[in-house]
Amino acid sequence: MKLPGAPTIDLRDNDLIINYTATSPVGSWDGTAYTGVTGMIQSGRTENGTWDGSGIITSTPDALSSRTTLGVAEASDVLGIKGSETAVWNGVTVDATTVLVKYTYAGDANLSGNIDADDYALIDFYSHVANVHGYFNGDFNYDGDINADDYALIDFNNNAQGSPL
To answer: Which of 34, 96, 109, 128 is an S-S bond match for 39, by CB 3.0 to 4.6 Å?
Structure first.
Protein backbone atom coordinates (compact mmCIF):
# COMPACT_ATOMS: atom_id res chain seq x y z
CA MET A 1 0.00 0.00 0.00
CA LYS A 2 1.36 3.39 -0.96
CA LEU A 3 1.26 5.80 1.96
CA PRO A 4 0.27 9.36 0.97
CA GLY A 5 3.33 11.59 0.96
CA ALA A 6 5.74 8.72 1.59
CA PRO A 7 8.76 8.70 -0.75
CA THR A 8 9.39 5.98 -3.30
CA ILE A 9 12.71 5.18 -4.94
CA ASP A 10 12.52 3.03 -8.08
CA LEU A 11 15.84 1.23 -8.58
CA ARG A 12 14.48 -0.55 -11.68
CA ASP A 13 17.36 -2.96 -12.52
CA ASN A 14 20.05 -1.02 -10.67
CA ASP A 15 21.86 -1.62 -7.39
CA LEU A 16 22.37 0.57 -4.34
CA ILE A 17 25.35 0.91 -2.00
CA ILE A 18 24.87 2.57 1.39
CA ASN A 19 28.04 3.23 3.37
CA TYR A 20 27.62 3.96 7.08
CA THR A 21 29.83 4.64 10.08
CA ALA A 22 27.67 3.99 13.16
CA THR A 23 24.62 1.75 13.43
CA SER A 24 23.78 -0.32 10.36
CA PRO A 25 20.74 0.92 8.44
CA VAL A 26 20.02 -2.60 7.08
CA GLY A 27 17.25 -2.99 9.70
CA SER A 28 15.84 -5.97 11.52
CA TRP A 29 12.60 -7.86 12.14
CA ASP A 30 10.56 -6.27 14.93
CA GLY A 31 8.01 -9.09 15.16
CA THR A 32 5.61 -7.47 12.70
CA ALA A 33 7.69 -5.88 9.96
CA TYR A 34 11.24 -5.11 8.94
CA THR A 35 12.86 -1.81 9.87
CA GLY A 36 15.58 0.18 8.09
CA VAL A 37 16.48 -0.43 4.45
CA THR A 38 14.97 -3.92 4.57
CA GLY A 39 11.72 -2.36 5.79
CA MET A 40 11.77 0.12 2.90
CA ILE A 41 12.09 -2.79 0.45
CA GLN A 42 9.39 -4.77 2.26
CA SER A 43 6.95 -1.84 2.13
CA GLY A 44 7.82 -1.15 -1.52
CA ARG A 45 7.30 -4.78 -2.50
CA THR A 46 3.97 -5.08 -0.62
CA GLU A 47 2.55 -8.38 0.60
CA ASN A 48 1.31 -9.44 -2.83
CA GLY A 49 4.63 -8.68 -4.57
CA THR A 50 3.27 -5.93 -6.82
CA TRP A 51 6.08 -3.44 -6.05
CA ASP A 52 3.62 -0.56 -5.87
CA GLY A 53 4.11 0.45 -2.25
CA SER A 54 6.07 3.27 -0.67
CA GLY A 55 9.77 2.77 -0.10
CA ILE A 56 12.36 1.16 -2.33
CA ILE A 57 10.85 -0.56 -5.37
CA THR A 58 11.72 -2.05 -8.73
CA SER A 59 9.30 -1.51 -11.59
CA THR A 60 10.82 -4.15 -13.87
CA PRO A 61 8.32 -6.61 -15.39
CA ASP A 62 10.26 -9.65 -14.12
CA ALA A 63 9.84 -8.43 -10.53
CA LEU A 64 6.06 -8.42 -10.92
CA SER A 65 6.24 -12.16 -11.65
CA SER A 66 8.55 -12.70 -8.63
CA ARG A 67 11.34 -13.83 -10.95
CA THR A 68 13.49 -10.93 -9.81
CA THR A 69 13.58 -8.81 -6.68
CA LEU A 70 15.66 -6.40 -4.67
CA GLY A 71 17.90 -8.30 -2.29
CA VAL A 72 19.53 -6.59 0.68
CA ALA A 73 22.45 -7.60 2.89
CA GLU A 74 25.47 -6.36 4.76
CA ALA A 75 28.69 -6.32 2.74
CA SER A 76 30.33 -8.10 5.67
CA ASP A 77 27.98 -11.06 5.18
CA VAL A 78 27.97 -11.11 1.38
CA LEU A 79 31.69 -10.57 0.91
CA GLY A 80 33.02 -12.13 4.11
CA ILE A 81 34.87 -8.98 5.16
CA LYS A 82 35.20 -7.40 8.59
CA GLY A 83 36.71 -4.39 10.31
CA SER A 84 38.58 -2.17 7.86
CA GLU A 85 38.80 -4.83 5.13
CA THR A 86 37.50 -3.92 1.70
CA ALA A 87 36.32 -5.85 -1.33
CA VAL A 88 35.00 -5.04 -4.78
CA TRP A 89 31.27 -5.51 -5.37
CA ASN A 90 29.85 -4.72 -8.81
CA GLY A 91 32.99 -2.77 -9.66
CA VAL A 92 32.89 -0.59 -6.53
CA THR A 93 35.19 -0.94 -3.52
CA VAL A 94 33.15 -1.31 -0.32
CA ASP A 95 34.05 -1.93 3.31
CA ALA A 96 32.40 -4.02 6.01
CA THR A 97 30.16 -1.10 7.04
CA THR A 98 28.16 -1.06 3.81
CA VAL A 99 24.62 -2.16 3.03
CA LEU A 100 24.18 -3.63 -0.45
CA VAL A 101 20.88 -3.65 -2.36
CA LYS A 102 20.90 -5.66 -5.58
CA TYR A 103 18.40 -6.16 -8.35
CA THR A 104 18.70 -9.92 -8.74
CA TYR A 105 16.84 -13.20 -9.02
CA ALA A 106 14.53 -13.89 -6.08
CA GLY A 107 16.49 -16.49 -4.15
CA ASP A 108 19.96 -15.06 -4.76
CA ALA A 109 20.77 -14.78 -1.05
CA ASN A 110 24.41 -13.75 -1.44
CA LEU A 111 23.69 -11.09 -4.10
CA SER A 112 26.02 -12.67 -6.64
CA GLY A 113 23.58 -12.13 -9.52
CA ASN A 114 22.60 -15.77 -9.92
CA ILE A 115 21.17 -18.62 -7.86
CA ASP A 116 23.62 -21.41 -7.08
CA ALA A 117 24.60 -23.89 -4.38
CA ASP A 118 25.83 -21.09 -2.11
CA ASP A 119 22.32 -19.61 -1.96
CA TYR A 120 20.82 -23.00 -1.16
CA ALA A 121 23.41 -23.48 1.59
CA LEU A 122 22.36 -20.18 3.19
CA ILE A 123 18.62 -20.86 3.21
CA ASP A 124 19.15 -24.48 4.27
CA PHE A 125 21.32 -23.42 7.21
CA TYR A 126 19.23 -20.46 8.39
CA SER A 127 15.84 -22.16 7.97
CA HIS A 128 16.78 -24.30 11.00
CA VAL A 129 17.97 -21.44 13.23
CA ALA A 130 15.41 -19.84 15.53
CA ASN A 131 14.72 -16.10 15.33
CA VAL A 132 16.73 -15.50 12.17
CA HIS A 133 15.33 -13.17 9.53
CA GLY A 134 16.47 -11.18 6.53
CA TYR A 135 16.98 -11.66 2.82
CA PHE A 136 20.58 -12.93 3.14
CA ASN A 137 19.32 -15.67 5.46
CA GLY A 138 16.56 -16.82 3.10
CA ASP A 139 13.50 -14.61 3.64
CA PHE A 140 13.17 -13.92 -0.07
CA ASN A 141 9.56 -12.66 0.10
CA TYR A 142 10.16 -10.35 3.09
CA ASP A 143 7.37 -11.82 5.24
CA GLY A 144 9.57 -12.35 8.32
CA ASP A 145 9.72 -16.14 8.01
CA ILE A 146 12.07 -18.50 6.24
CA ASN A 147 9.66 -21.18 5.03
CA ALA A 148 8.24 -23.11 2.09
CA ASP A 149 7.27 -19.88 0.29
CA ASP A 150 10.94 -18.88 0.18
CA TYR A 151 11.97 -22.34 -1.02
CA ALA A 152 9.35 -22.05 -3.77
CA LEU A 153 10.93 -18.79 -4.94
CA ILE A 154 14.50 -20.09 -4.98
CA ASP A 155 13.49 -23.38 -6.63
CA PHE A 156 11.36 -21.76 -9.35
CA ASN A 157 13.89 -19.05 -10.11
CA ASN A 158 16.84 -21.43 -10.08
CA ASN A 159 15.25 -23.15 -13.07
CA ALA A 160 14.00 -19.92 -14.70
CA GLN A 161 17.08 -17.73 -14.31
CA GLY A 162 18.98 -16.49 -17.31
CA SER A 163 22.34 -14.76 -17.46
CA PRO A 164 23.71 -13.38 -14.16
CA LEU A 165 22.28 -10.00 -13.25
So the answer is: 34
Beta strands 55-57 and 8-10, pairing class: parallel
Q: Per-residue confidence at 46, pLDDT binned at 50, 70, 90?
A: confident
Backbone dihedral angles phi then psi of residue 138, each to the nearest 5 degrees? 125, 0
| Predicted TM-score (pTM) above 0.90 | yes
Who's near 104: CB < 8 A, 6+ residues apart? Answer: 68, 69, 70, 71, 111, 112, 113, 114, 165
Other C-beta atoms within 10 Å of 137: how many? 19
* Sign of the CA dihedral running 100, 104, 107, 110: negative
Cα gap 107→122, rounded to integer Å: 10
For 75-97, the pLDDT digits (tens) are: 999 999 998 999 999 999 999 99
- d(Cα 143, Cα 138) in Å, to the nearest integer? 11
DSSP assigned state of 29 = B
